[in-house]
Write a structure and sequence with these properties.
Blueprint lengths: L24 H9 L20 H20 L8 E7 L2 E7 L9 E5 L10 H14 L2 E5 L11 H14 L7 E6 L1 H15 L7 E5 L11 H4 L12 H8 L21 E7 L5 H13 L4 E6 L12 H17 L3
Parallel strand pairs: 3-4, 3-5, 5-6, 6-7, 7-8
Antiparallel strand pairs: 1-2, 2-4
Length: 331
């Protein structure tokens, strides 16, 4: 007989999850690259500090951000847009301008990923340029403040400040806002707070594998654990660090649990191997229940964040995003 504190569930015998033949060769290579010869997911060696280890977070944050900067440095040659960094209140925004001619009325606001802690600076700037190039409009990359120095609600304050800045320069029907992973969390949370403060909402919302539930209550946090070669396990330590004692289930921290009424049409993406698959699936259903038009795109065997950008599946995803964004702008 099971004790009250024991989980009831399905017992799965130890087995190897093979790389499927149902994806492109490039995607399969991307998966294989992140797994050792013994079948161990390489990213399991990347261990986050405890939420109270301030010094440990500072060290790992500096290391990861250097790695991000080095990774994007080699890709800058493919960028065509120019970028200027500005500040508004506490918010740092990288404003990327595409090559002329472009539609000056329209704007894309981009929230970078990075587990609520990493991904600012050069990586955020590069992401803004990528979005400007892809959509042919000015992109505002929000380089929001992160813990341990700046826990919640600093990032959300920055998101709202950036949104106000863009609203002063672009009509809401000409704005699309998007975010990947933790950036997806902040994109939705920013709109919930903007709505609560009486601001008009944008034309569209793009959520790529959104970290919509910081309580990590979804099914895929168990079923895709270690199957996701990019994000093989829990980010709870990051979540607790970010929240700084605030309730993880509050809608500004876990937008999945908020009142989503009135949000703009939304594009949501995930993959069958994504640890955050349940976030995407549940957010899609929550938006639909709230009367919001929402499209859900699930890619075969795709881990968290995609296959790395160079596969047919990644290119197909980018085409789908571009199609959605153009539809929201009416072109």
């Amino acid at each position: 007989m099971l004790m009250d504190d024991q989980k009831r569930g399905v017992v799965i015998p130890e087995h190897t999850v093979p790389f499927p033949a149902s994806i492109s060769i490039e995607a399969r290579v991307a998966l294989e690259r992140l797994v050792g010869n013994d079948g161990t997911v390489l990213n399991t060696g990347f261990v986050m500090p405890g939420p109270d280890d301030y010094g440990g977070w500072l060290r790992i944050k500096a290391t990861v951000n250097k790695q991000y900067a080095a990774a994007v440095k080699g890709l800058t040659g493919r960028l065509r847009s120019t970028v200027e960094t500005i500040r508004t209140d506490h918010a740092t925004i990288h404003v990327a301008t595409p090559e002329a001619p472009f539609n000056m009325d329209r704007a894309f606001i981009d929230f970078h990923g990075g587990a609520l802690v990493f991904g600012g600076g050069d990586a955020c700037r590069f992401g803004a340029q990528l979005q400007a190039d892809q959509h042919g409009v000015r992109c505002y990359g929000v380089d929001y403040r992160t813990p341990p120095e700046h826990p919640y609600p600093s990032a959300l304050d920055d998101g709202l400040s950036a949104y106000r800045h863009v609203l002063e320069r672009h009509a809401p029907e000409n704005i699309v806002i998007g975010g990947r992973s933790s950036g997806g969390n902040l994109a939705v949370a920013t709109l919930l707070r903007a709505r609560d403060e009486g601001l008009p909402l944008p034309a569209g919302l793009v959520l790529l594998s959104p970290q919509a539930d910081l309580t990590e209550s979804g099914d895929s946090f168990e079923t895709n654990r270690l199957v996701d070669v990019v994000l093989p396990g829990s980010l709870m330590s990051n979540n607790l660090l970010y929240a700084a004692g605030a309730d993880l289930s509050h809608s500004y921290l876990s937008p999945l649990f908020g009142d989503l009424t009135g949000l703009p049409a939304t594009f949501i993406q995930s993959g069958t191997r994504d640890l955050f698959l349940s976030n995407a699936v549940r957010m899609h259903r929550a938006l639909r229940r709230a009367g919001v038009s929402a499209d859900l795109h699930i890619f075969e065997a795709m881990p968290h964040g995609g296959f790395g950008g160079m596969t047919p599946e990644d290119r197909e995803l980018q085409s789908e995003i571009a199609r959605f964004v153009k539809q929201r702008w009416g072109k």
